[in-house]
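Reviewers asked in the last cycle whether our approach scales beyond single polypeptides. To address this, we selected a multi-component target totalling 978 residues and predicted its structure end to end. The input consisted of the following lines:
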Amino acid sequence: MDDIRKALQEKSRRDFLRGSALGLGSIALGTLLGCNADEQQVKKVVAAANKAGAISDENQPLVNPHFVPRAKRVIYLFQSGGPSQMELFDYKPELYKLHGQDIPPSVLGTGRVSGMVSNQNRFPLARPATEFKQYGSNGAYFSDLIPYTAGIADDICVVKSMFTEQINHEPAVIFTQTGNQLSGRPSIGSWISYGLGSLNQNLPSFIVMVSKGGGDQPISNLAWSNGFLPSHHQGVQFMSGKDPVLYLSSPDGVEKMDRRRALDFIRSFNVLQKDKWQDPEIDSRLNQYEMAYRMQMAVPEITDLSNEPQHILDMYGPDVKIPGSYAYNCLMARRLAEKDVRFIQLYHLGWDHHGALHKGIRKATKQTDQASAALVKDLKQRGLLDDTLVVWGGEFGRTSFCQGTLTEEAFGRDHHPTAYSIWMAGGGTKPGLVYGATDDFAHNIVKDKVHVHDFQATLLHLMGIDHEQFVYKTQGRRYRLTDVAGEVVKGIIA
Amino acid sequence: MLLASLNEWFSYFGHFHPVVVHLPIGMLVVAFIMELLVWRNPALSVLHPAIAVCLLAGCISAVLSCVVGWFLSQEGGYAASTLAFHQWLGIGVALLSGLCWWMKRRSVLRPALVRWFRKALCGLLVVLTIAGHLGGNMTHGEDYLTAGLPQPVAGWLGIDLQKGDTAAIIRKPIDNIDQAVVYTDLVTPVFQEKCYSCHSAQKVKGGLRMDGVELLMKGGKHGAIILPGNTDGSELIRRLLLPKDNDKRMPPKDQPQLSEQELAMLRWWVQSGADTKKTVSEAKPDSAMLAALRSFQEGGQGNDTGTVTALSPVFALSVGAPDQAAIKALQQLGVLVAPVARNQHLLEVSCINAPGFGDEQVALLTRLADHIVWLKLDHTQVTDAALASVGQLKHLVRLDLSGTRVGPAGMPALKNLSYLEYLNLTATKIDDAGLRALVSLPALQHIYCWQSSVSAKGIVSFLQQKPATRIVGAADQLQQGRGM
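The resulting structure, written as structure tokens, was:
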């Protein structure tokens, strides 16, 4: 604190601080006003801040999208661990015949393999753990492990040609979520929240749910971090159990009126403090207190499933009754989408099958297949799928050769960044499309490569944002979600 | 055969000109500095022989520069007048340095020559500087030194940054796209930004200049590049569409590329006759093209709105600014009102935070009748009575009435919504008769009527009349139930 005081007393430094603090303050204010405000009002606020000495033009939220958006919200069903493309979407009949033979060196190439298999002296191919059938009007192949997803074949767009640059979980997850392998950048949801603001002032624009029961591999909350963006844009995590949002409900015996008065009193202190220190984080804090107050009303209504009819609950599968399960979170995602929450991020763990693939992938698909498909169908029947983008995908794929000793069922597959599959539905994507293709070993992409940055650029594009013009300046340079790369994948846009 | 390969070699050696040219510059300048030192301080007379050596080496390298420079000039692509100046000044440097060397040698015997030698050496330095500057201009562009000049120095020198300055092209904002002249307001800025650096007065690669109507239409050394009305035959468009790694692709792969919109705009311009006078409205773009052209408005470069074709034609309409008082009034009720996008006056309206919104307030919407394209009234208090007002929102594209008390009686009020594509009637009292009233809506693509009284038969008979519509309703639900 003394350092800040000293700095404030140095004139040259004070001028600098005044400029940057007011600049950030105006942004926070602009974001608070969000979409509820017309552009002129925001401009007026910003102009007032500029007059007071703020640095203009940098770091202003978009307020309105660059162009007419196709999607208003995103539900991102993140499948953490690396779902195996050969067991789900990418049908490779050759692999059944070549079981036990080494992958040809020409296919393996010189791409890197992880430390877990790099000391293997041979890489025998492993037969997929299940059979495939054709579904939908385009005859797309889906495995027997995901019958429900296969049932919505005509509603989803499967991308078989995703690739990433990372081979280990943490950097790959962070790369997919923030566009950079090192943590510290804002995640996609934070960018969207910062850029477009909220459609519903009673709920945060970025909500995160991590499902229980998948696996014991942890996921870092840096995946939904706000990075360098104002901190009220970080993902708000909904927990399972009695209190979905921790410390949200008032303690017993505290009336709503008392809470309001207390908040107003705290607010007056915060405003005083802000006048003194000019710290933009105080704005964030003010914003969060008010949001929490409004959420006290809105959240219990959302988490109360008593008005869901039985046939809807049945759609999502038996787990839907268990708070915190993937199915429960999918239903919650639909309820949040109905309330116009911009970005709903689910994480399901338990896709990392280095060994006992047969058993592991059956467990993971059983937990996720029915509910994922139910979510899409439920959104569709309510007319929400047109402007809600649903994304199902992980951080990388798995190798067609086995990890460890090849056995009939206990074998595993290692991480594989150079080709994997995801699917998207709604929000302006082409339904019933299979995009891209891999070689006979699902090892290399042979058609229409889609880099993680391309995917992110496409997601922003569907939300009406030009990823190249959506920047935030910090530490002396401008940052984008897609950093310096990424091209919109026109082929999957309807 | 031999000649051809010789040509290739000459052309290859030409590329060494920018390297070799620095040798005479360095050596002659060193000779000058040493002469200066000797002149000020006779004790340094030991340098005399070194000066002679420098001059001789400078002269030889200057001759060499001239030779490879001549090879380079044969490649073409340089402004003729600058090139001629540079060429003769370069030859001048070579001759003058030879003369200086000769005088230096003789001056040992004839001290009277020293004064003449020094004058000649000063002259050599001047010629050298000018020749070097012209060479730099040809390589880097004429504004290379002036473009980056910081203010206020640039102002003192009277350098106007906007004039002929490729580094700082400022597009003239287009206020009204209909009135914009296609060639001057849309086409030329693209050429200026992406093509002039190689195809204008400064550099004339392939004999093509694009900085002027006649020059552009004349084409390059392979003939005309624009065949009006024939995009496939026009070399301009052909080159723009070649794969990036093709040698003939323009702009070359390491240069700034055209955006999709710019390319689409150029193709349309050539297709529509490559007229240089017509305004946009005279050139009659179709609605999709007009929507794409609108992205050039507000000084834009054609934002990446690749999906415009699939969007409703409403977004191509020009409407004025909405009534701010009406927006305020709605916002005070907790209604979200926001432009659908940055360069649009069209609005989206959502009552998600105004569940009390009902028939009394709905009249407020009609004050924004030209502007509202997306309207979310789901789970509010509105009834059939409100639909009379909603029916006046003539540009409506998406209407969500799910979970409200509207029913079949209100549907006929929507008959004038000629742009309506999406209608959500989930969980309302709509029935088969109400559905029939919607058949006349021309743009309708999606109807949602799940949890309503619409029967499978009603949907089938609707689809018989409008087969392109997608209806999601109870029947669809049944079908899906069976499928699972």
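The interface with chain A takes residues 295, 303-308, 310-311, 315, 324, 327, 331, 334, 336-344, 350, 352-353, 398, 400, 402, 422, 424, 426, 446, 448, 450, 472, 476-477, 480, 483-484 of chain B (CB under 8 Å). We regard this as preliminary and will revisit it once experimental data from Aim 1 are available.
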